[in-house]
Fold:
Amino acid sequence: MSTDVTAKNPAPAPPGKTGSETGGGLLQLVLDGLRRNMRQYGMLLALGLIVALFAVWTDGDLLLPRNVSNLVLQNSYVLILAIGMMLVIIAGHIDLSVGSLTAFVGAFAAVLTVQNNVPWPLALVLCLLVGAAAGAAQGFFIAYLGIPSFIVTLAGMLVFRGATEILLAGQTLGPFPDGLQKIGNGFLPEAGPETNYHNITLLLGLVLIVFVVLQEFRDRKRQQEFSLDVVPRNLFLLKIVAIVAAILVVTMLLASYKGAPIVLLILGALVVGYGYLMRNAVFGRHIYAIGGNLPAAKLSGVKDKKVTFLVFLNMGALAALAGLAIAARLNAASPKAGLNYELEAIASAFIGGASMSGGVGTVLGAIIGGLVLGVLNNGMNLLSVGTDWQQVIKGLALLAAVGFDVWNKRKSGS
Structure:
């Protein structure tokens, strides 16, 4: 009596294809890919869900061109701070001083331009240098004297807040010169033939699509060359389509109002530059190394003190840039500016995938986390939700994000 071997041992799937690809269908493939890449795609899906929900609840007001433009302008400072904070957290530290430092830089800019008539381009450079110097001072105490970052930056928060009060003598100071105002409120100029859209914004959107698609294919090819795991081809193509669709929607919305805000171009340059730094540069790998395993990084020859020092210097410079952006948007420097900005930046980083233990996080994740908070704020304002409930909801969102990170690590460990 013969045994049907083929019935018990079916032929294997063709090389390079998984069972989900051959028999599970596209939906199963997507679900499997999402499960394997939950950390990477989880908050991106959450952002899309939040946008969709608020778009329905506000009867489409959330996605009106003017509101999308305001959303960018209102949250630019948080996104700038979130980029720097992500690097700090990846390195295994924290910075509580950035909110006070943004207020101090805004006050310093007002003293220079309003009281002393310093040309605004020179004032801008001086403010960035002051922010970098403040970050460098804190970085010195943390890196070379070994004082915990929590203590140093807590002291910095008090020092910069007091210095802001001293500079402004408790008064609001403004207005700023027109050139400086455009950093926080300006838009790209009109150009080209008469159309119903902002032509330069449309062109920038197309350039961004080409750049992102090429970058995604280049990253995938590099991962394959180093025999690293990559997402299945169909899921990768689905990701590309989603990215292109998202960029097109945002581009069309901005182009149908006043065009791309100037601060959005600054933010885009920061995302591209810091994204390259963290993915491809040696310095970025060293940041991940000292945050992931400091003793091993030291044994590998990483100059951990220098890296930590530069991370905080960079945070100071970005805090100065954020301070200029928010002061220019408000067209005045106030002693109360920057309140809780550090908490929003930290929340953006953790919601965007940073780990409490360091060594994990991406620049794009920080942007996604900041956008989650921004859309929550904007959507709840459109729905006339009180500030008390807004704080509760944002707190629960942060708790959920950190809880998800803990759950994901335990699942991966098991």
